[in-house]
Design brief:
Elements (H helix, E strand, L loop, with lengths): L2 H12 L6 H15 L5 E7 L5 E8 L7 E3 L3 H9 L3 E3 L17 E9 L2 E10 L7 H18 L1
Antiparallel strand pairs: 1-2, 1-6, 2-3, 4-5, 5-6
Length: 152
């Protein structure tokens, strides 16, 4: 499936009025993990209330112990502080990387903004070295905008 086809599917998921936000987020995770071969773990992290930490939301992939991530720690924690996309072609080259699995080779994290505030992010791990392109970034930015609309 192309990114364009996936965008249509994501729009269908987010516009479904008979499902909860968490059901929609999980469906997006399933869609991406099933249709993009190098997306091996797909999940959402959200700001945990007033705390300077992220809490794991819906995800698809291997179970993770990283259900709470302090701001600044790991790739996700850094995105919570920087408010910038973070593409990591080789996780072994990152000093501040939190290893979830020895099979993970690369990671991409894109923030989700609601009313200009970073409220969470989509996090994708890949077992393929350096798989993420600018097209992945643009597509995931689209996904995050769709998610922002259902959370706002």
């Amino acid at each position: 499936m192309t990114f364009e086809q996936l965008q249509l599917k994501v729009s269908e998921i987010t516009s479904n009025s008979s499902t909860t936000v968490d059901e929609k987020l999980y469906a997006i995770c399933e869609l991406l993990e099933a249709n993009i071969t190098y997306y091996n773990w797909v999940g959402f992290y959200f700001k945990n209330g007033d705390k300077n930490e992220l809490k794991l939301g819906p995800y698809v992939g291997e179970p993770t112990d990283h259900t709470i991530i302090p701001f600044g720690k790991g790739i996700c924690g850094q995105v919570a502080v920087s408010n910038q996309n973070f593409v990591v072609p080789d996780v072994s080259a990152q000093d501040n990387y939190i290893a979830c699995s020895i099979t993970v080779k690369a990671e991409i994290v894109i923030p989700i903004f609601v009313h200009g505030e970073n409220i969470g992010q989509i996090d994708i791990d890949s077992n393929t070295p350096d798989p993420f392109t600018e097209a992945d970034e643009r597509f995931l930015e689209f996904v995050c905008k769709q998610v922002a609309e259902i959370i706002a």
